């Protein structure tokens, strides 16, 4: 096991000299935190109890868990709380993987908190709901029929969660903002810094809107604004234009993909006219039939284009289908679907957080109009059609108003982020008077560890330096 510890176990507390305030908080336990790569570091595991729904007097209490990595700098600032994306991602699990070195680097500036938000990771006591409604693996179904079935299944799951004692009105970004305030008090700090990605940026912006006096600094990337849970399909098409521009700069890639949008449109049109009946390998030794429809490829593509490397993968599949080759898409679908298990199911935090942040009727109408001609149609949005199942869940337009704040905020965007777009991030943060923006050319959605320069620019920002307007270049993956 590799060791990158800067502290000793609790029984040898004297060995913590030189590390600011390396003492357990109330209820914390000393642990050795191990990364997936085999690194380890001394840390503290802690928890706090909060109401599931602060608007209900007798709400049940839920437990939120975190791991605290003590600061290493001589003059540490406020605790830095990592907010994972998703919604549904675990901050604690994130710290174990590729971003582990960044978690360690951030300790220069304060205690780093890998936080599991309510309903995620170690803070999750919610049951997954598997509905009684199934999507046939072999029969053609229109988008309208599919969305209607999903709405029915979601309504069934809302009833199921209520019957299990879950207050579905407690899983909102507003409640999570209050959780951050509770975490700040638990840590005994006047302020906290926030560091978030994707949905974590959404939560960070909500915190700036509601409790900015409790926030010292903010670092966000892959920005999802408070009114951007539902993405604009036209901006999805504009992403493919940016991808084409990047491809055109590499002669071999341009020869392979002279017109990405035409290729995608051609394959999707073919699937719309004649869906493909595939034999998908199952967990056993056999196969099961699955009818690949246009909708399937639109949904999967919308997810995979988040990062350039995966965009290359899905483009290779489109190219193979265009040539009549099905082996690559069969390999993809083997990972994406189980033809023997077609029940519609939902994980509560993941679906509820998006549904309650929601969108106005006017925005839904705009998105629907754009979807009529956009490459991904209505399938780049996974929750919009569920927003009307229970109108009482919606947080409303006041929540969706962009924050106005003077808290220093660093916004990092990747030009090839196919899920949260640079122009959307600028709109969502326009009211932040102390905003600094860094653009990563060829950067994707999961941009944090795509270049050492990104870590450096975050460190410079945390030191109080000006980084606004810096540009970072990342090589494209091979096509």
Describe the structure.
- The chain is α/β, with parallel strands linked by helices.
- It has 2 domains: 247 residues, 3-Layer(aba) Sandwich (Rossmann fold); 204 residues, no CATH class.
- It is built from 15 helices and 14 strands.
- α4 packs across α5.
- The protein is globular, with a radius of gyration of 23 Å.
- The protein starts with 28 loop residues before the first strand and ends in a 6-residue tail after the last strand.
- The N terminus is likely disordered.
Main pleated sheet: 10 strands, mixed
Quote the beta fraction.
15-25%
Count structural domains: 2
| Low-pLDDT regions | 1-20
**Strand-and-helix sequence, N→C?**
EEEEHHEEHHEHEHHHEEHHHEHHEHEHE
Arithmetic mean pLDDT: 94
State the name of the first-level CATH class of the largest domain: Alpha Beta
Query: Might you state the CATH topology name of the largest domain?
Result: Rossmann fold
In total, the number of strands is 14
**Helix proportion of residues, in percent?**
25-40%
Radius of gyration, rounded? 23 Å
- Termini separation: 36 Å
In short:
This protein is an alpha/beta fold and 479 residues long.
SSE layout and pairing:
Layout: E1 29-34, E2 40-51, E3 61-69, E4 80-83, H1 91-94, H2 100-106, E5 112-115, E6 129-134, H3 143-163, H4 173-187, E7 192-197, H5 199-211, E8 215-221, H6 233-248, H7 251-256, H8 260-273, E9 276-281, E10 287-292, H9 294-304, H10 308-322, H11 327-336, E11 343-346, H12 348-357, H13 361-371, E12 409-414, H14 422-428, E13 435-441, H15 452-462, E14 471-473
Parallel strand pairs: 4-5, 4-7, 7-8, 8-12, 12-13, 13-14
Antiparallel strand pairs: 1-2, 2-3, 3-5, 6-11, 9-10
Helix pairs in contact: 4-5, 8-9, 8-10, 10-11
């Amino acid at each position: 096991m590799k060791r990158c510890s800067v502290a000793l176990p609790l029984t040898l507390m004297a060995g913590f000299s030189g590390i600011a305030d390396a003492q357990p908080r109330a209820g914390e336990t000393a642990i050795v935190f191990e990364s997936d790569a085999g690194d380890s570091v001394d840390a503290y595991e802690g928890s706090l109890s909060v109401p599931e729904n602060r608007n209900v007097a007798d709400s049940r209490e839920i437990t939120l868990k975190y791991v605290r990595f003590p600061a290493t700098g001589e003059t540490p600032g406020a605790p830095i709380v990592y907010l994972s994306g998703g919604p549904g991602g675990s901050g604690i699990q994130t710290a174990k993987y590729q971003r582990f070195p960044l978690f360690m680097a951030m300790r220069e500036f304060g205690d780093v908190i890998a936080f599991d938000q309510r309903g995620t990771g170690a803070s999750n006591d919610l049951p997954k709901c598997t509905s009684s409604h199934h999507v046939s693996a072999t029969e053609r179904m229109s988008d309208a029929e599919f969305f209607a079935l999903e709405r029915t299944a979601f309504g069934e799951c809302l009833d199921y969660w209520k019957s299990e004692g879950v207050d579905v009105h407690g899983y909102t970004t507003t409640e999570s903002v209050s959780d951050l305030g509770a975490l700040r008090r638990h840590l005994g700090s006047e302020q906290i810094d926030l560091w978030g990605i994707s949905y974590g940026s959404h939560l960070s912006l909500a915190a700036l809107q509601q409790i900015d006096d409790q926030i010292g600094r903010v670092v966000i990337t892959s920005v999802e604004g408070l009114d951007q849970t539902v993405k604009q399909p036209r901006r999805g098409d504009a992403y493919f234009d940016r991808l084409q521009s990047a491809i055109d700069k590499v002669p071999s890639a341009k020869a392979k993909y002279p017109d990405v949008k035409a290729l995608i449109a051609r394959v999707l049109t073919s699937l719309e006219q004649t869906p493909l009946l595939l034999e998908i390998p199952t967990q056993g030794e056999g196969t099961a039939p699955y009818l690949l429809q246009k909708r399937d490829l639109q949904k999967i593509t919308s997810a995979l284009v988040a990062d350039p490397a995966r965009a290359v993968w899905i483009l290779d599949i489109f190219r193979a289908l265009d040539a009549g080759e099905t082996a690559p898409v069969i390999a993809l679908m083997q990972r994406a679907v189980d033809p023997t298990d077609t029940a519609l199911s939902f994980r509560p935090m993941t679906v509820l957080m998006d549904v309650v942040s929601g969108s106005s009727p006017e925005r839904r109408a705009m998105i629907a109009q754009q979807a009529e001609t956009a490459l991904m149609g209505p399938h780049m949005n996974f929750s919009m059609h569920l927003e009307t199942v229970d109108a009482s869940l919606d947080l409303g337009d006041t929540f969706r108003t962009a924050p106005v704040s003077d808290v220093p905020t660093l916004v990092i965007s990747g030009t090839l982020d196919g899920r949260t777009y640079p122009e959307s991030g600028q709109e969502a943060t326009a009211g932040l008077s102390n905003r600094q923006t860094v653009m990563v050319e060829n950067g994707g959605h999961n941009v944090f560890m795509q270049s050492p320069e990104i870590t450096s620019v975050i460190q410079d920002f945390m030191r109080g330096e000006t980084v606004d307007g810096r540009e970072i270049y990342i090589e494209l993956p091979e096509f």
